[in-house]
Write a structure and sequence with these properties.
alpha/beta; two-stranded parallel sheet; 6 helices; 10 strands; 37% helix; 20% strand; globular; binds NADP nicotinamide-adenine-dinucleotide phosphate
Amino acid sequence: VELLVLGAAGGVGTQAVVAALAAGHRVRAGSRAGSAAPDGAVPLAVDVRDLGAVARAVDGVDAVLWCVGVTRGSGPDVGRVGMPHLVAAASSSTVSRVVTVSGAGVTLPGDAKGPGVRAVSALTRRLAHDLVADKEGEHAVLAASSLSWTEVRPPRLREAPGTGRWRLTEAAPGLTARPLAKADVAAAMVSLAVDGGWEGRSPFVVAG
Ligand SMILES: NC(=O)c1ccc[n+]([C@@H]2O[C@H](COP(=O)([O-])OP(=O)(O)OC[C@H]3O[C@@H](n4cnc5c(N)ncnc54)[C@H](OP(=O)(O)O)[C@@H]3O)[C@@H](O)[C@H]2O)c1
């Protein structure tokens, strides 16, 4: 399978490249700066604000892992601006799956969050307003598209070796949820991209 990782120099993106290579896939590592990628991956400069760059990057790819998110230098709307580019480019291409990473603090229509979990989400929204608002906008674009997509929503993340113990669930994690290794989020994304499942849905990804 040929995979394109966007946001490949980020925390989850770096791990997604590593996980995809380890699983034996061909990997294009697309980052804004065209940063060096691990041996075996093809580095590409892809700013998702540039439709042409996104279209060139997806050509010939089977699945896309969207690890893009708001950073200090990204502007607050990178998901809302970039995701329409991916939808446009992927819709007329070889791409058959798109898997994205959002966050457990993002509340979507149909979520059954209890009062405790809602309080955590409200706090997350207050502390990380730009990130949450952009992920909500990104979700709306994805949900309105005809792509085959899945979006994973992790709780707090940490830089740590992957444990291989993660699961997808409709039950939102609360304040006491264990932080999840970025490598485990990446492993979940590669699995969803290659094996499918949770089509058109936004499960939480949690440790365990
Ligand atoms: N950290 C947590 O505890 C946590 C918890 C739940 C959810 N999340 C979400 O999980 C996602 C992934 O987390 P992470 O730690 O991997 O974040 P990250 O390291 O900040 O990665 C985001 C990546 O997006 C890239 N990006 C920004 N604008 C771009 C553009 N125009 N074109 C291409 N790439 C662009 C960034 O590149 P530059 O460095 O060049 O800007 C960066 O590499 C984030 O969106 C975050 O909101 C995080």
